[in-house]
Amino acid sequence: MRAVIMHAPGDVRVEEVPDPVIVEPTDAVIRITATCICGSDLWPYRGVQKVDGPTPMGHEYTGVVEEIGSAVSGIKVGDVVVGSFVASDNTCEICRAGYQSRCVHQVMMGSIGTQSEYARVPLADGTLVRVPGEPTPEQARSLLAASDVLGTGWFAAVAADAGPGRSVAVVGDGAVGLLAILAAKRLGAERIIAMSRHADRQELARGFGATDIVAERGDEGVAKVKELTGGLGAHSTVEAVGTQESMMQAIRSTRAGGHVGFVGVAHGVELDGTELFFSSVHLHGGPAPVRRFLPELVDLIMTDRIDPGVVFDLTLPLDKAAEGYKAMDERRATKVLLTV
Amino acid sequence: MRAVIMHAPGDVRVEEVPDPVIVEPTDAVIRITATCICGSDLWPYRGVQKVDGPTPMGHEYTGVVEEIGSAVSGIKVGDVVVGSFVASDNTCEICRAGYQSRCVHQVMMGSIGTQSEYARVPLADGTLVRVPGEPTPEQARSLLAASDVLGTGWFAAVAADAGPGRSVAVVGDGAVGLLAILAAKRLGAERIIAMSRHADRQELARGFGATDIVAERGDEGVAKVKELTGGLGAHSTVEAVGTQESMMQAIRSTRAGGHVGFVGVAHGVELDGTELFFSSVHLHGGPAPVRRFLPELVDLIMTDRIDPGVVFDLTLPLDKAAEGYKAMDERRATKVLLTV
């Protein structure tokens, strides 16, 4: 089959590799119908994260079940499915508490790669969610978003305790931040403040439900959020970047007793204990347990109540993956969909 | 009146100072009946925190209302009262959300001093809670504990989401840590792991409801907690020390999706963002909003359902405050009560 392989920073190729096979009886092999390039794929692409020889890429996917292991009973060959970037049994104590991204048997799909024609999915019964009916092209695109960026944005909004009567600030206007706005809106938040400097993303933010835009960053951005929230700061703040500046912007934009949901993979972030102590915020985040939300997200998508797929602003065939990486690296695209 | 004044590290004196008077119409003046020395009073005593000239000390207190300002309506002269270490209006948006320690009009009682015969209490209607009936000596002692250490331990347990079906680990065996054990027990936690190396405090911990004692610290302590919790870590962890080691011990002792309540005033603590991200814990803490819990705590104490006052292991008259500071500094006492 064809698969995207990263050889070195900036060197992404589509190559022939062996077809995946069932290894464990709990595995499934799926035919990928759509996959995409993640912001986190840019870390090795840019050389910030080490590339140890040729590496299969990708961890977001929708597909059709091609083959199942002998112990798989919840899905069958031919099912349209979506799963998260972490394979999980969905039965251990941690999964049952809603933290499938930290399942005691977790397998990172990124270690397998899904920017390819087929993929082996471990713990298939726990990992994959069946999609009812035949998705339209728009729904298919949105299901792919559910696999990571929507699920992650949704978790961030939940971790930030977004809901009715709450003011929600969102730091970061990438796909995850934008979809956290969509999530906050669905969760009932009244005031949603998008922190964004880009006109095109501001427009998407408004489309998803943002009521206010703050273009300022750092202390000025914090001051603006306070101004919009009676001087107190937001009840709920989503952090969807992962830098020192964005984390501090999120914490400082939040009122005492408020909640910060952080999902940007922290790179070089150090939090000062004394400042955190006196901030009196709730802080929660980490790799999003997307699986917790998938059944609800699939339902919302298949009944056309949300359309998160609009965050994909460039669609390319798998063979042109290198072009997709380049476009995202050069910020010409927010999120690239690869058709297979 | 007589009051405890700190002149320099190690130099604590009881001196004559002017009696407090009503300054704002929302003030009350109370006659202090009992006060105590806080672990945080040791920071300036040990020279870790700067002492800027003669400083009135103390922020914990029970007393009897002596005089009220013209705008005070909720309490009257002669009422037995208890309040927290932060004066708060209890009506602002932050107070109503349960964060009275971050009231928009907050006044730190430590800036006024309560190790004295009398004290001015700002925002008296919001700050003071009336005690019904006449407390016994044991109840009076426990009410004083409610003013800070019990209220802080209680908040820590609530912030750690302690409750039925939860395993709770407590890092720190000072008065706050010990009373967090009492709180966790009252909140319904089944398994309570006290991390303590001192036989006398282990005994108090068991008396308050600890089911397990872990004497190990750091990585070994974390390993022990995991061993006791099916390899996963505690659902809920209380941090009641405030050092780098204790914070990391608390975070690492907690399972993915679990809650860390931290109330040790962080000194020189730096949290690594990447580790916090992948810990997947909820982190919440800060100066405890003791006022939120005071009515319930007063009720539990006055109906003899809890006896937190046993944490006081040395009682001295106010005049011997210097001896009390010395005893706590030299760890001969956990918590010193000063009778007035």
From TrEMBL, chains A, B:
SMART domains: PKS_ER (SM00829). This is Threonine dehydrogenase-like Zn-dependent dehydrogenase. Keywords: Metal-binding, Oxidoreductase, Zinc. Residues 7-338 form the Enoyl reductase (ER) domain. Belongs to the zinc-containing alcohol dehydrogenase family. It comes from Phytomonospora endophytica. Pfam families: ADH_N, ADH_zinc_N. SUPFAM superfamilies: GroES-like, NAD(P)-binding Rossmann-fold domains. The keyword Translocase does not apply. Gene3D superfamilies: Medium-chain alcohol dehydrogenases, catalytic domain, NAD(P)-binding Rossmann-like Domain. InterPro entries: ADH-like_C, ADH-like_N, ADH_Zn_CS, ER, GroES-like_sf, NAD(P)-bd_dom_sf. Its cofactor is Zn(2+). GO terms for molecular function: oxidoreductase activity; zinc ion binding. The keyword Hydrolase does not apply.
